[in-house]
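Hi support team,

I'm opening this ticket because the web form for multi-chain structure prediction keeps timing out on my end. I have pasted the exact lines I submitted so you can reproduce it. The total is 896 residues across two entries, so I didn't expect it to be a heavy job. Is there a limit I'm missing, or should I split the entries? Thanks in advance, R.K.
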Amino acid sequence: MQFNDLLFPLVFLPLSVLLFRLVPAAFKKPALVLCSCLFIAWGSPQDLLLTLLSVVFNYISARELYALRRQGEEKKAKAVFLSAVIADLLFLGYFKYFNFVTSNLGALFKTALVKNTLAVPMGISFFTFSELSFLFDVYRERVAAPGKPMDFALYVLFFPKFGSGPIMQYKDMEEQLLSRPAPRLKTETGVRVFLAGLFKKVLLANTLGAVFTPISSMDPASMSMVTAWIGALSYAFMLYYDFSGYSDMALGIGKIFGVDLPVNFRYPYLSDSVSDFWRRWHASLGAWFRDYVYIPLGGSRGGDLKTVRNLTVVWLLTGIWHGANWTFLIWGVFHGAVIVLEKFVLKNALPRIPLPLRRAGTFLAVLAGWVFFFSPGVGPAFSYLGRMVSVAHFTDRTAGYYLLTALPLLIVSVIGASPVVRNAAVALKRSHKKWFFVAEAAVFALGLGLSIAGMLSDTYSSFLYAQF
Amino acid sequence: MKKTDLSGVAAFISRIPRSERIAGWLKNSRRAGPWLTSLTACFALVFTLVTLLLPKKTFSEKENRKLADPPVFSLSALWNGDYTDGIGAWFADHFVGRDRWIASDLQYKRLLGFRENGGVWLGKKKTQFLIPSAPNETALEKNLSAMDAFAADHSEVNTYVAVIPNACEVLKNRLPANAPAPDQAAYLQRIAGALPNARFLNVTEALTQHREDDIFYKTDHHWTSYGAYLAFLSMAGEMGIDAPITEYDIYPVSTVFTGTLASKSGCFNTTDTVELYVPKTDVVYAVTYVSTLQKSASIYDESALETKDKYTVFFGGNHPRVDISTTSESGRRLLLFKDSYANCFVQFLFPYFEEIVMVDPRYYYDNADPLMTQHSITDVLYLYNCDTFMTDTSIADVLAPPAERPSPTSPVQTEQPAEQTTSEQAEE
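Hello R.K., no limit was hit. The queue was backed up. Here is the completed structure from your submission:
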């Protein structure tokens, strides 16, 4: 199930909240686990089965690991830790990368190799990362003890974050929900954040998709420069509203159940460097790679050469985490390369560049990255980028058509991707207290109505990050 | 009892000054606590309950499809996800006011500046246009060379090719500003140039002169009988029809036609009129639907007027092969390769031929060559609309000499295409 399936906000979520509220305190966690299992099984019960297998395996491994560490069996603990991590990576790798590897090997040796025909389980990239962080935290003794099976199950399966993150650390979840007798519910704020996310996803991302889709099916070789820019910009904002909208929905639902999930997006298109971008875009993933790959590898403490090596590893992994394709790999390496450039070559020059220019430059670099992200192959990506700078093919009829269609939407998108709306709302609330409430209620009612309309008319669109 | 209670409340409210009432309400609302939660919960509760309680429709006229049935439970359906998918589809299909919600979504998109939806351009004067797909270059080359070879093989008969430009070419002036419509005039030139052994009939000029009239349906991808009539008049001379009939009994058989384009786009702001043109002539005819051996004394199927797709009033839709024999004594016998544009064109053709063999290559899996001798064909006409012609993948197969033809999976089509779902026909 997706948050923007009509059934979710209208039926599933209200019933889950009702159940959670009505059961006695002792049954709240089992109730949430039950709802989460239903949420996962709704799309495919096979997914639930595979997920539960993974949960049981990781829980048993963590218990074993914990016991060995307490007995001082360091070597055995290390062996258990490494084998569990490898098993998790194989599980993830089989579903996500097996076909990519075999098809590339097959092409290399000119034979057809076996294929995985099982569907990729929902949220696999996210829940395996949660489990890996848990194993690591137990091994490094960052969590006190693995706790009860129900707690661990809830940590992995908690449906607001299960499908697409944000990725959360066990200790954060433990403080807020698992070890607390009565969670602090923030229903009103939660509903507000959820609705804002729903509006982003349904009213903006899906309409931007309607601009991007026809452009993406054109041959870049016969595209005008303006069309190529409209396509890339629509994609950049579609991806932002799609993913940040989905994250907001997750955050909102989390609050309704008393959990503050980590903030995933902080106006990423206002970043003033690519390093900054990764603290603002999908921040929970960046944090995961920092905590569980970059720092364990030594971070930036082992000299420049080691830092570059560690950054390369992190960015290769970030690239292929997004999907098994050379385009994602190149996208990851490109981001890594720009970050290395920022850290070493431009270190002193960057602060002297005026902020608006730094922001514009960062946005352009990110935009170029997205071209690899959305292109079907490396060749088409370069030819698309070529069209974006091809002044000789500046504009044509098609560009005029899409400009007329997309301009209002792009203007709204740019404004919405900055804190302008929020600041204006805060100021208005202060100056026109009475009427602000009426206007706000009207906006939310209208948005809710339009979102239902959008979900009904757009049953084909699905969340872009779901397969990653 | 109730009445007095209410009037008491009203009287109480009327004693509070108006401005104070609003201010008080605002004050209370701000203190009302979780108003947004209540609002959202109300939305969810009301719409879900009403959806569950309301009687269900089985067919959506607007979307031109059967609405989802409640899913049937079985363990295997549960296991492969069909059951839960079915619940979602059922809920969305029967959602209260579904058509209105979808209309308001379109309104929202148009407000944002969108001038297309669901593969349809929303043009001026409430005219809708099918956004053409890119030409299928390989199939096109194959079709053109097969057509020219067939014409060369049968040089004793007259071969005519009429590819009708679509609304997006003829009614360019009504397209949304800058809509990237293909240059169909260039397509037609290219087709004409590739067929030296056939006579290419270009009706663009004849149609464009009347672009202010209804020569295409506004909500459907077909041309009207009037459009077909204009084309016929301009083609008649070149086809050797010296005195084409100009007097017709015109029957407007439906004024509430909303076609496939409206169903695709979800834009229902106008309706079309379907007209039959019955030529004033003594020639009578009989129609045989070859695949089912059904016979009829009329090319019109008036039962179609009760259905959604009223364009199927002509022949009841598309068929692999239809034979028409007439009492004409012209000595001419026509083999017509066609798509659905020809369905409303035949009403103009029949008085001038003793026999017309209509073949729709998309559904006809036999070789057409034997028909030439079996029916002593004197004239061959290809009548297609430009969209279908540029993407067709079936003409070459029907024309290929028997040895070269790929063996079909079933030699004779048993299923009557007219009885297939109408959405499939909408693709022509």
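A quick check on our side: Residues 188-457 of chain A form one domain. Let us know if the file doesn't open in your viewer.
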